[in-house]
Amino acid sequence: MAKMKIKKGDLVEVITGRSQKNGGDRGKQGKVISVDVERQRVLVEGVRQVKRHTKVGTSGRGAKTGGIITQEAALHISNVQLVDPETKKRTRVGYRTETVERDGRERTVRVRVAKRSGKDV
Prior knowledge:
Number of helices: 0
Helix content: under 10%
Radius of gyration: 19 Å
Structural class: mainly beta
Shape: extended
Distance between the termini: 23 Å
C-alpha cells in the first residue's frame, strides 16, 4: 500500500465531484479531521455533509437525544489535494531530507514540502 501524503490537520481542497454552484463540494477547502490508512479515506471538515438519522433516547439527566444529525462523510484520498500554505492554492507534496542532530546523534529526517512554493508543510 502506498504511503499517505496527507496527514491529520492538513488543509486540503476537493478536486473532483460536482461544482459548488451545482450543489457539490469541488473547490471547497477544509481541515483533515481523520485519516483511514487501510481504506485510503479522509474526513474533511465541512465537506461532504450527510444527514444521519439516530434513534431517539434519553440521557442520564432525562434530556432527549437523537433525531437528524448532519456530519461529514469520508472521501477517497485521491479526491483531495493539499493546499499550499503560502499561496492558498492546491499543490503536490514533495519530500526533502535533512540531517538533524538529536541527543548527540545525526539523523536523517524527511520533511514534507509544497511543490508550488517550496515551503515546508
